[in-house]
Amino acid sequence: GYYDGDYILYNRFAESIAIHTTKIIGGFDIYFTANAKKFKIIDKNRLNILWLYSHPMAYELDYLNNFDVVAVASPYYLEYLKGKISTKLYLMEEAAQYKIESKENKEFDIVHIGNYKNYRKLILMAMDKFKVRIIGIGWPNIKNLTVVPLEAADIYSKTKIVLDTHHNDMKQLGFMGTRAFEATVCGAVCFTDCLNYAGLLKDAVVFVDESNIISTIEQFLKDKALLAMYAEQAKTLGNKLLMSTRVDDFVNFLTALT
Description:
By secondary structure, this protein is α/β, with parallel strands linked by helices. It is built from 10 helices and 9 strands. The protein has helices spanning 6-20, 61-64, 75-81, 121-129, 149-157, 168-173, 178-185, 213-222, 224-237, 243-257; strands at residues 30-34, 47-52, 69-72, 88-91, 108-113, 133-135, 159-164, 189-192, 206-207. Strands 6-5-7-8-9 form a 5-stranded parallel β-sheet, sandwiched between helices. Strands 1-2-3-4 form a 4-stranded parallel β-sheet. Helix 4 links the parallel strand 5 (108-113) and strand 6. Helix 1 (6-20) packs across helix 10. Mean pLDDT is 85; it is low at 1-9 and 20-28.
């Protein structure tokens, strides 16, 4: 089932990079792990890589130094780490696995795909004021539903606004979740609380908090030109938001290390 996206992201990337490893000149053994908090390096002859894409405050700096490469999903946090750890750093944001062309006639005004969590207050606020299509588990008075990633992409292509929220450490340190990439590449406008984000999506998402989420949703639902402007911005990013591009760029980076 499709819950919050992140837990299947590593498998998507691992499968993709396995297909691409023939591009690496000379070749070497790679151990790639994602968001592993207690991983023990057992072979220093391998290239040990950590992809840190969420919950950054769970990682001690000494632990990050165990790896040969730490790929970080936040430009903001990458700058913070420079000079604090000795390992090689690489910026690797999250990405969308699937792209479905945006539908001209939208079926849904507002959608959120994800389980209920205690940091979903903005979504609850929106639900009190608007009709929000919720797909997930644990939401009050809503039937539990799940979808697989390709189904989620299809829903996003039919949606005007997708709501997204983050844990506090991700918000503060600029870690944008997978959902924003998946929604944006399929033509929806993502409303996010990740206020310190400064990556690929910075001009293609709408930053909101408790003080303005209701008025901002109202503004976008009334103004078709505003929705179209953000959709056009997303189009300029194109394949930069896709996992296939992320893998190609990372393999080029690894090749340069050999």
